[in-house]
Write a structure and sequence with these properties.
- Helix content is about 25%, strand content about 35%.
- Strands 1-2-3-4 form a 4-stranded antiparallel beta sheet, covered by helices on one side.
- A hairpin with a 4-residue loop joins strand 1 and strand 2.
- The protein is built from 2 helices and 4 strands, in the order αββββα.
- Helix 1 crosses helix 2.
- It is of the alpha+beta class.
- The chain has one domain.
Amino acid sequence: MAETVEEKAVRYLREHRLEIERADTHGGVVVARCQGDTGEYHLGWDAMRKEFRCSCLARTECSHLTALKMVIKR
């Protein structure tokens, strides 16, 4: 049985694969990277576009962003 997005996100956190590089509470910027199963991805909160972004190819909410959202407060 395949992992859900949430299960994979929890696994990434448990395996310490998510690294937050910058969190600016005044500017609303979050920059992070996540070592996924198939590569390293750059992700974060894009304050200008007011959206989360990830460099992976997922067309829907990815496990990398789900992991990030689990550890930051919006």
